[in-house]
Specification:
The chain has helices at residues 17-25, 37-56, 76-87, 101-109, 113-116, 121-133, and strands spanning 28-33, 62-68, 92-93. The protein is mainly α and 134 residues long. It has a 3-stranded parallel sheet with strand order 1-2-3. Helix 3 links the parallel strand 2 (62-68) and strand 3 (92-93). The longest helix is centred in the middle third of the chain and has 20 residues, at 37-56. The chain starts with 16 loop residues before the first helix and ends with a helix.
Length: 134
């Protein structure tokens, strides 16, 4: 049997059997945050669900960090939203992931951005984020 240091489970962005099972079996959670008003409401719902799962099923479950996604540094709203999360004491991970049309191209092709455009700014941000998590 092989041993693994880390196992990442990517779940759908809704609460269902699979996402609940992942939370029950996980040690920690990474929460994506898309820098918009919808995500402000959603992140608090996710944090409440993590607390509930921790209380009822998995006392070791914790939020490891919030991944800032689709960040536009020149726009005021994304900066304000991230500042608000920071002021709430949430563990914000660096680097922030920039907004890019290249990601939509990646989704359309069904291939990871790092394979399509390995030197793209967003590809490098993903690689830096992954390195910071290890």
């Amino acid at each position: 049997m092989e041993a693994f240091d880390e196992i990442l489970i990517d779940t759908p962005p809704n609460l269902n059997f699979f996402s609940m099972s992942a939370l029950i079996g996980a040690d920690s959670v990474l929460v994506p945050f898309d820098c918009d008003a919808f995500s402000v409401k959603a992140i608090h719902q996710v944090l409440n669900i993590v607390d509930d799962v921790s209380d009822d099923h998995n006392a070791n479950l914790r939020v490891e960090g919030v991944i800032i996604n689709q960040f536009q540094s020149q726009a005021k709203l994304p900066r304000e939203l991230v500042d608000s999360l920071t002021q709430q004491g949430l563990p914000i991970l660096a680097p922030y992931l920039s907004y890019s049309i290249a990601m939509k191209e990646s989704h359309e092709r069904g291939r990871p951005l790092v394979y399509i455009h390995p030197k793209h700014k967003l590809s490098l941000e993903f690689q830096n984020l992954a390195n910071n998590l290890c």
